[in-house]
Amino acid sequence: MNYRHGYHAGNFADVLKHVALVELLRLLTAKDKKLFVLDTHAGAGGYDLGGDLARRTGEADTGVLQLAMAAQGDMPAAVARYLAAVGAYDRKFGPPGPTLRHYPGSPRLIRAGLRAADRFVACELHGQEALALKREFAGDRAVEVRQVDGYQALKALLPPPERRGLVLIDPPFEAADEFERLLRAVQQGLRRFATGCYAIWYPLKDAAAAARFVDALSQMRLLVVELHLGERAGADKLAACGLAVINPPWMFEEAMREALPWVARQLGSGVSATVRAAPASVPARARGA
Predict the structure, then answer these.
(1) Residue 103 in domain
(2) Which of 122, 184, 189, 254 would staple 42 via disulfide (CB 3.0–4.6 Å)?
(3) What confidence score (pLDDT) does residue 3 get?
(4) CATH of the domain at 178
């Protein structure tokens, strides 16, 4: 495993994934019952957007940094909550600067959204990333960090004793058969914990493979959200990605239908967002200005 998310922190894929994640946490913690959260491919926890990795690609410039400069007037509530969580993490490192400098990965966003009685396990296999993750949460008893294969964690940790849970699966997609491995892992997880909410990120480099993956999930209660950069994507760069959410909480679809077209408009001409529920049908795509 060589994948380092620091190169891509705060890019358009993070925006899609994390707007949805913050909203899922808000809705799932609205009930007065304990929640278990599993992040199977957690990464380092937090990222320096001014550091060597992030500046080498500059992907945050056309992702979260561009979104943060958007006018606040008509900003959807889900986007405002996401940017507030990002800003709160950035302020941990000092007073606000002219632009965001520190970006929270999914573990930090999850931690910020949990209540005292909730439980969180963050898994990361990559040695350097796992060490950074352990340092990020050193002394925090509310977070359990495990250096393990996230797919194996699904077998070991599901079903949770809380009986309510959110499982975030965000693989690096380094393996040629990643979609097949991912589908098997999700199906195994569902056999153990059918009522859990699963949020599964995937790239849209191989459109046919992604379509087969989503179709395999379409008999479940499923919401699929995607973000397409169109002509904005440079050569050899990821141009589109999606998040498949199984058993989404009430009002999540409405929040995404409001938030993602607005996000697409802010990210530029030709950028588009897709929100569709299973069974799959011809998607209605909201294009940017």
Answers:
(1) yes
(2) 122
(3) 59
(4) 3.40.50.150
